[in-house]
Amino acid sequence: MAGHILRRDCMTTDPQATKAFYEALLGWQVRRVDTPMGQVDVLHLEGADMGAVLRLDPEHGVPSHWIGYL
């Protein structure tokens, strides 16, 4: 769909804390999904994927952030 977010990733330096935060705050569940590039943790709510949680290397100096793909 043109102009719609197709996928969201939460790039984070602390995946465990990020998953716990969204589980507690919004009730999102985490499920591990096998992909061709390895396992990915997906935040899920009521039949919809809310986004993936991906580890961001803190040595790169980039703060944790969400990224959307159109």
Structure described in brief:
The protein is of the alpha+beta class. It has a 5-stranded mixed beta sheet, with helices on one face.
Overview of the structural elements:
- With 70 residues, the protein is α+β, with helices and mostly antiparallel strands.
- The chain is 17% helix and 49% strand.
- The chain contains 1 helix and 5 strands.
- The chain has one helix spanning 15-26; strands at residues 7-12, 29-35, 38-45, 48-55, 65-69.
- The chain has a 5-stranded mixed β-sheet, with helices on one face.
- The radius of gyration is 12 Å and the shape is globular.
Please render the helix and strand layout as text.
Layout (H helix, E strand, L loop, with lengths): L6 E6 L2 H12 L2 E7 L2 E8 L2 E8 L9 E5 L1
Parallel strand pairs: 1-4
Antiparallel strand pairs: 1-5, 2-3, 3-4
Structural descriptors:
17% helix, alpha+beta, 5-stranded mixed β-sheet, single chain, 1 helix
| Average of the residue pLDDT scores | 90
Spatial ordering of strands, largest sheet: 2-3-4-1-5
Strand-residue proportion: over 45%
Structural class: alpha+beta
Distance linking N and C termini: 9 Å
* Order of helical and strand elements: EHEEEE
Residue stretches low in confidence (pLDDT < 50, at least 5 long) are none
Rg value: 12 Å
Overall spatial form: globular
Treating each run of at least 4 consecutive H or I residues as one helix, how many helices? 1
Helix content: 10-25%
By DSSP, the count of extended strands is 5
- Largest sheet features: 5 strands, mixed
